[in-house]
Amino acid sequence: MAEDMLSAAKSMLPKIRENLSRIDSECQLPADLAEAMAEKGLFGLYVPKVLGGPELDPITAFPVVETISTVDGSAGWCCFNGTALTSAISRISIAAAKELFGDPPVITGSGSARSGGTATVTDGGYIVSGRWNYLSGVDHAKCLFLNCDLVDEKGPVLAADGSPVSRVVVVPVGDGTVHLVWNTMGMRGTASNDASYSELFVPSSHTYERAAPAVHDSPLYNPNTSLLLSWTLAAANALGMARGAMDAFMGLATGRTTQSPRLLRDRETVQTTVGECEAVIGAGRAYVLDAVGRMWESQVAKSPDLMQKAAHARLAIAHAIRQSVVVVDKLFYAAGTGAIHESNGIERYFRDLHVSGQHISGLHSNYQLSGQMLLGASEDPSLTI
Predict the structure, then answer these.
(1) What is the full per-residue pLDDT of the chain (385 aa) written as tens digits?
(2) In which domain, by residue range, is 186 found?
(3) Is the pTM value of this prediction over 0.90?
(4) Whose CA, among 275, 314, 329, 378, lies 20 to 30 Å from 108?
């Protein structure tokens, strides 16, 4: 199955490449492209096998997302984000999953970890209302996984520390309204639009608590590390784009694109930049695979040092994303005026990486939180989600 998924990713590259201009202009993956990727299971790499998914481990899933991202960041992001969200199908029963996604289930989803609305307790379930944003891939998702603030007859339900209690609901996209608001400098094809719901009844079986154990007995669905297993693929997305930028630059540097008789490849500053960027990409990739691999080994073995390993994984993921942005900046500068032309491809990676780098998985706050954990200092709750 692992080799099949990587082969599936590689088989999609020509079709993704053919659709690059449409991905940008339509601000989503073209329907036929999204359908083809969905049929190959590329939006749900962590979906349980019992539900027809590949249930890949993070190290095996990594090159799948990375490979797609070398051609287009948005397509790779949808592979990462779809996998991250649909892995939560492990939190509801098989029967509920089939009610929502069909039998046999075709599981495609999007969602938001940020609470954009409320789930009010009622007989047999919840009444859901609100508006949620940044729903990447909502255009080809069947259902949304939405975090809600829990409300009962007394008002907002609060935890012992006074923070709001939340609950995730799984709802069909068609039961709400999608708002087309995604107009950005990069990652345009992710279709990260908004969706709103009003007074929608959701049965209890279609909901779950984020910290609750999964229905399926697999280390892949450990709630303590589910966020980092998702973010591992965000790093794969960023590093894949950095590799794509390098490939585009190499083509530019070895061809005659300016009035100068001297090729870019023959300039010492360019040679230094290429060597430096190659080292940065390779080092960032190796660090992620090593740190996440160690975390995964502890997770499988149910080792008590899991969260210590998780601190290193979080650090490696953030570092890889930040350094991918550094790489594309260096290549863009070294390419000179050639970088600004769409025909060369570098400007696309530049735009996409500067947008994806704003995601929480790549923010500098991850360095601080990891440092707190490694030092045994008091952790700042505002740095966690």
Answers:
(1) 556 999 999 999 999 999 999 999 999 999 999 999 999 999 999 999 999 999 999 999 999 999 999 999 999 999 999 999 999 999 999 999 999 999 999 999 999 988 999 999 999 999 999 999 999 999 999 999 999 999 999 999 999 888 899 999 999 999 999 999 999 999 999 999 999 999 999 999 999 998 888 998 899 999 999 999 999 999 999 999 999 999 999 988 887 555 556 788 878 888 999 999 999 999 999 999 999 999 999 999 999 999 999 999 999 999 999 999 999 999 999 998 888 988 889 999 999 999 999 999 999 899 988 888 888 888 776 666 6
(2) 111-206
(3) yes
(4) 314
Asked which of 150, 171, 206 is the last residue of a domain, the reply is 206
Residues 189 and 269 in one domain: no
Return d(Cα 131, Cα 116) in angstroms, integer.
5
Q: Alpha-carbon torsion 343, 349, 354, 360, what sign?
A: positive
**Is there a single domain that holds both residue 118 and residue 69?**
no
| 314 touches 372 (CB < 8 A) | no
Whether 33 and 115 share a structural domain: no
DSSP code of residue 169: E
- Per the structure, the count of domains in the chain is 3
For residue 37, the domain's CATH number is: 1.10.540.10
Do 189 and 227 belong together in one domain? no
Dihedral over alpha carbons 279, 285, 290, 294 (to 10 degrees)? 160
Whether residue 115 sits in one domain with residue 35: no
In a domain, 160, yes or no: yes
Q: How would DSSP label each residue in 334-382?
A: HTGGGGG-GGGSHHHHHHHHHHHTTSGGGSTHHHHHHHHHHHTPPP-GG
39: phi then psi, degrees, rounded to nearest 5: -60, -30
Cα–Cα distance between 232 and 254 in angstroms, integer? 33
